[in-house]
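If your schedule permits, I should be very grateful for your opinion on a structural question. Kindly check, if you would, that the fold set down in the tokens agrees with what the sequence suggests. Thank you for your consideration; the sequence and its tokens are set out here:
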Amino acid sequence: MDTANDRGDLRKLLEEYRRSLVSEHTLPGSSLTVKLKQVGLEDLLFQGEIPDTLSGLVQQAIDGKGKNMSLSGADLPMVLDMMNLVTRAALVWPPVADTGDDEHLGLDELPFVDKEYIFDFCNGGANALKPFRTESNEEPDPAAPAG
């Protein structure tokens, strides 16, 4: 039976969980103190938040092949779009918009180094797993010890 006490416990549990997803950071370029939530590229992709024009680039980043992308060539506009997308999704406080106003921090106001910091923060979990991932074309060595 659903009681007010059960709903209160659930509300408290969800509040604690949501609070645990957000952390305070000082951005290196602007020195702004912001609140960020961990957002994975995979989550954004599966939620349909990634436009088709960026899906290939995002898949490369997820697969760990994004390090070959150039910040000076044809990839640059797509890389910047991807960083803006992640920044928009991760930034909890202050509120963010494409262009800043009296109530929003604008993506156009944030220096690249801040967007890079946010992108790296969000990809921290994926980067930590890279040593454990194998290339899709690599077969495990059957003679290697298990574990």
